[in-house]
Amino acid sequence: MSFDRRSHPLTQRLALALGAALLVTSVAHAAQANLANEPADVCPALKHIVDAADFRQLQTQAAAQLPGTSSADDCRANTHAYDCHWRAHWQADGVVTDPLEEFGADIAACFPNVVHDVNTPTRQHFIVTTAERRVSVTANVQGQNELRLRVTR
């Protein structure tokens, strides 16, 4: 039994198309997996919190909800202080292996006018200067992968 040579180019094209489709599918799957492992962007929420004129209003504002907090019940507020706690929602990224260090790096990166004056294994403290005020931002460890953020002025 002989193989018809005219069908061979068609079979070859079909195999190439199938291979290309599998490659595109695996690349798309890998990209989605990498996005899922990326830490959430905390900057929009942090900036909203620091810029707030009255921290009490933040509990009803979705823009102030930090990624990983389940509800406004995770945060307490009064006129001059905003205090939240939550479990770290991200995994180590290969560069920083500690959720507090990762969060401290996020805080430092979010603000152009920031001074990082305390850096210990359990506490990170920053002074953020805005046009209107100076704000103290403290992040510390509360327990296994549990963090606390306290913003005061």
Structural commentary:
The chain folds into two domains: 1-37; 43-152, no CATH class. A six-stranded antiparallel sheet has the order 1-2-6-5-4-3, covered by helices on one side. By secondary structure, it is of the alpha+beta class. The model is unreliable at 20-36 (pLDDT under 50). It has helices spanning 7-37, 43-51, 99-110, and strands at 75-77, 81-87, 114-119, 123-129, 134-143, 146-152. The radius of gyration is 24 Å and the shape is globular. 34% of the residues lie in helices and 26% in strands.
What is the element layout, followed by pairings?
Blueprint: H1 7-37, H2 43-51, E1 75-77, E2 81-87, H3 99-110, E3 114-119, E4 123-129, E5 134-143, E6 146-152
Antiparallel strand pairs: 1-2, 2-6, 3-4, 4-5, 5-6
Helix pairs in contact: 2-3
Distance between the termini: 87 Å
User: How would you characterize the largest beta sheet?
Assistant: 6 strands, antiparallel
Q: Tell me, what's the shape? A: globular
Number of helices: 3
Mean pLDDT, rounded to whole units?
A: 76
Q: Any low-confidence stretches, pLDDT <50, length ≥5?
A: 20-36
Reading the helices and strands in chain order gives: HHEEHEEEE
Keywords:
153 residues, 34% helix, alpha+beta, globular, 2 domains
